[in-house]
């Protein structure tokens, strides 16, 4: 929604999506790291920190595009 409200076009919108995905992955990675590790150095709840942070990273692209285009049209076209 933010990309549409800010008026981001084609490349800017995709760059925004990638930036927000990376920021969210970093936050999830920090949270998993803060939950602690077992004696062998593995995460207590996830196979690896990277797997937890990047799980389903690309599965939300169609929802992102839907709301990006919809809010862009609501704010700038209608």
Summary tags:
78 residues; mainly alpha; 4 helices
Describe the protein's architecture and organization.
With 78 residues, the chain is mostly helical. It has one domain. Helix content is 68%, strand content 0%. It has 4 helices and no strands. The longest helix is centred in the first third of the chain and has 25 residues. The protein is elongated. The two termini are 16 Å apart.
Secondary structure elements and pairings:
Blueprint: H1 2-6, H2 10-34, H3 49-54, H4 61-77
Form type: elongated
- Beta content comes to under 5%
Structural class: mainly alpha
Largest sheet, strands/sense/barrel: none
Count of discrete domains: 1
Could you give a short description of this structure?
This protein is mainly alpha-helical and 78 residues long. The protein is built from 4 helices and no strands. It has helices at residues 2-6, 10-34, 49-54, 61-77.
């Amino acid at each position: 929604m933010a990309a549409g409200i800010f008026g981001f076009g084609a490349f800017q919108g995709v760059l925004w999506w990638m930036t927000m995905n990376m920021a969210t992955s970093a936050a999830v990675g920090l949270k998993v790291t803060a939950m602690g590790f077992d004696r062998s150095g593995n995460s207590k709840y996830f196979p690896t920190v990277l797997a937890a942070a990047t799980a389903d990273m690309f599965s939300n692209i169609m929802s992102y595009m839907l709301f990006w285009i919809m809010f862009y049209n609501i704010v700038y076209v209608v």
